[in-house]
Amino acid sequence: MNLKLRFPHAYSPYFILGGLGLLLLAYAPLLIHPGLHTACPENDTWNFPIRWSVLSALRDGKLPLWNSLSAFGIPWLATWQTESFYPGTLLFTWLGLSAWNLSGILHLCLFALGVYFFLKRAGVQPRWAFFSAAVALLNACAYNHLGSNSSMETMAWMPWTVLAVRNRLEGRPLAGRGLAFLFALQVFAGYPQIILYTLLGGALYALSLQGWRSLSKLLPPWAAGLLLSSAQWIPSVEYFFLNAVRPPAVRDNPHFFLPLGNLRTFWESNALSQGGLPDYVASPTFFYFNFYSGLLPLAVLACGLLWFRRLGRESRFCLLGFAVSLLWCLGFFLEPLLRLSIPFPAFFEPAKAWVLVNLFELFSLGLLLEDLFPKPGAWKWAVVGAGLLNLLYPLWTHPLETNFTPPHPRLESEAGEIRPALGSGRILVLPDSKGHQALYTPLPDPDRRPLFKHFVPNSNLYSFLPVANFYGSTWPTWGSLDANLYFRYAFPYARGRLLDLLGVDLLLMPVDRMPGVFRRVWSRDSWTLWRNPSSLGHSFFFKGVARTADRKAVFTAFAMGSARPHRDLFLEERPVSQAPLSPFPPISRETLAAKDDYLVVTQNAMPGWRAWVDGRPQAIYLADGIFQAVPLSKDARKVDLAYEPASFRLGLFLSLVVGGMGMALLGLGRDRKA
Asked: d(Cα 236, Cα 454) in Å, to the nearest integer?
């Protein structure tokens, strides 16, 4: 008997091998050398510090709820993009930071596969669906976001979510549960604007298929997905709306409209380059919006506009979606509101609708090719090959850099001298703009040789300087913002005691003279590392009677030297965090010795912190306008501190209940079928 394996046309081995071949052609250096990364100014300021902090917490057996190393401590979970509950984080837990490239490429493949299967479900023949998926794998949106974990991982599920919307409307089995699960995955992946625009795109697609009655079919799975991801978004909402302020994402573009100049990147990958450097290095704003997908997709879209009436319903919807989302990015719809002084939520950040522009372009490409060329001849492979080669060239010439490993000898020697001097303390880096660029974000070499970016994990930057390890444009309402106010009064250092109070142990500055209290550790080029011997470190004790004062008076007193941390303590009358109800501190806690009248911990006194003194619940007060103060009894021996806000406990409870119910319903469904 002769057995022949027959592949369905949609799963032809030619398409599978073609996709793997493209993947290796485009990204082989990143797969072979995990230390190489796509050049991106945000890797060392956002992406790497997040991963480093999350990995440190997970490897210590703790949930990454709080990062004590940035801006006097910030709630990591509430910043969304830490992906504390996202399954893809397991890759980093198992493989460390060497999983960075692997994670990005895996999610890029997920994105491309989602485009392929959506187009197949829409009736597009495999060759055109494959072409759109290949463009998804190679276009600028892909390789510009390989190092941006959260945006890539949230974006990866977008086409699958739209496909799940279609399945739900068609009444396919388990489609509702699939939609709920995909939505929850996006929330856990954590890029809020991408989630918002995914929901918007899915809802509009449903309206185009079945009208307003379609929304009644989508709301239950979306609600279920929202409940399933409660552990992530409830603490985030509490933080964003109650405990944070949101400065403009880009100062010279506060409403975050897409600059018109970015439209040139539709047909030229480096259209915005400056002095030979690509735009995604020269400007973080442009980094987000490099749309380059080659000339062929643009030519197909232009043909679609010319023969619009010949197109099918879904083709017309996707083409219109591409045009409308692009106009939204440019601020076309919101500019009139600005002129009329009508406010709108800053959370929209219209330029971040680039995800819809990219998705609708890829969908339109496959659908238009199917409508315009339903029976293509032998020329189709030549066109596909030319279109993909057009994308491979800028990918091959894209600058790569060696972030953090292997170490550059000179910079590693500096870091090696900093680490022993630092211990577990804090380093304050106060460079000028050129110094910051040299220390943290060296530009790619013109010859595209790998570069090393320097990173000091315990550093804190203040005074409106670019922050090396604090993510995002949302800042705590106290803490780091108050530190900015402190440092307005911080000079000269000899007069006040701010650096002592803030626990700054080392200062790295382009300054060769400091007051006598500071000790020179080493000098290198124009940089000098100074030790502050009188720093109070992570915590200190206060013995005496606390008093009250408004924040400005407190700041001025410490800055001008009329108040000293060991001699003066300023407390708010009401506690920042009430005493916990449970007498048992959680496992993931920090235990400190107790003595004197107050324990002052130099990290943000945000609601959600809990304290136990010798096992007895105790309230936490706001000390000196920033920090945590725990009143102590005379015989107190130890203090347990834990960050575990009620919003997180509520969210985790809802996530577990909904997740358990979903598993039970899935099991019941299988039993009935059996």
From this structure: 30
